[in-house]
Amino acid sequence: MSGHGVGGDNELGADVMDEDAVEVLDALAPKVTADAEALFVVAGLGGGTGSGGAPVLVRELQRVYDVPVYALGILPGRDEGAMQQVNAGRSLKTLVREADAAILLDNDAWRSADESVQGGYAQINAAMAKRVGLLLAAGEAVEGVAESVVDTSEVINTLRTGGIAAVGFASAPAAEDAEENVTTVTSVVRSAVMTGLSLPNATDADAALVAIAGDPDRISRKGAEKARKWLQEETGSMQVRGGDFPLDSERIAALVLLAGVERSQRVEAFLERARQAVRDAPAETPDPADAFLNEDLDDLL
Questions:
Q1: pTM of the model
Q2: Where are the beta strands (DSSP E) in the chain?
Q3: Is it the case that residue 290 has pLDDT exceeding 70?
Q4: CA gap 42, 37 in Å, rounded
């Protein structure tokens, strides 16, 4: 395909991954050690290679390994074309079925209104890497002692709800005295959810996890408890886990993981955009539409 993957054909992308699954698993085997607690498959869902190949790879990893397998999917922006919207809609349906959970990152989440996706790649990638990096670092050896540490088991238990998940982040300067940071802690948690989510407006969740990162001596326990209660009210979930992430920093940050956000406004808006792209497709190319418009998608959500 002249360096362009499978040319946006996600059925071909699925076929290629299916045919080469043994080779891919053989290449991954030396890297998946006994210490692995979960596996992540990262893919852009707008193109053919990622949208078609990712669900197949997730399925094969589930078959071979006895640890959770998560999908980390990148949703196309609103102006990335009809084919990308349809591919992502079709792939999302399958990913949710095959993976233990699908964490979605929205290309439109952190770019300005007049900025193209390509022009904003650096900002988008940095924002995504920060959120995912902190999530994957949960439980790693860090300096300082947390009052209640957030480790991988907390992440896995939050994602056990399944379905679609989102991750948020925000930070702010902190005073040296923890008692002065009550408002700071609550504010960064609110910002992580209201303006820093990988899926904007995806706040209706089945389960949630909030980790307060920073110097343990600067983290306000009162602020952390208030933030946790606010998150419980905002998401409508009774399953809200919380803890600390010790860091040598003069700032306080909040990492928020929301699981089971399928019914959120953002997901519904994306699916409607994908359906509209199918309805607008030329009559002479009905195959993508036929594959996307089926009862499975409606039943999924």
A1: 0.85
A2: 39-44, 69-75, 101-106, 164-173, 207-214, 240-246, 251-259
A3: no
A4: 16
